[in-house]
Write a structure and sequence with these properties.
This protein has a single domain, classed as Monooxygenase, CATH 1.20.1280. It is 85% helix and 0% strand. The mean pLDDT is 92. The radius of gyration is 15 Å and the shape is elongated. The protein is built from 3 helices and no strands. The protein is mostly helical.
Length: 87
C-alpha cells in the first residue's frame, strides 16, 4: 500500500472517531432536551468553523476533512435547532 493510502486511512480513522464522538451528546440532547448549558456563542462559532472546514475539505479534495466536517456541521445544526426549540 502506498504511503498516501496509509495517510488517507489515518485521516479516515480520525474522521470516524470525531464523528462517533458527537453521537452520545446529540443523542443525550435529543433525549433530555436539556440545552441550557450550550451557549449560543459556542454553537455559532462551532457551526461557522465547521462550514469553513467543510468548504476547505471540498476545495482540497480531502475526503476525511470533508466527511468529518459534513457530519459535525449536521450535529451542531441539530444542537442549535434543539436550543431554539428547548433552550
Amino acid at each position: 500500500m502506498p504511503l498516501m493510502d496509509n495517510i488517507e486511512l489515518l485521516g479516515l480513522a480520525a474522521s470516524f472517531l470525531v464523528i462517533v464522538s458527537w453521537i452520545p451528546q446529540v443523542h443525550k440532547s435529543l433525549k433530555t432536551r436539556h440545552m441550557k448549558d450550550f451557549s449560543w456563542g459556542m454553537l455559532a462559532l462551532l457551526f461557522i468553523s465547521q462550514v469553513l472546514f467543510l468548504t476547505y475539505g471540498i476545495l482540497i479534495s480531502s475526503l476525511p476533512v470533508a466527511l468529518t466536517n459534513a457530519f459535525t456541521t449536521l450535529f451542531v445544526g441539530i444542537l442549535a435547532f434543539l436550543k431554539i426549540r428547548h433552550g
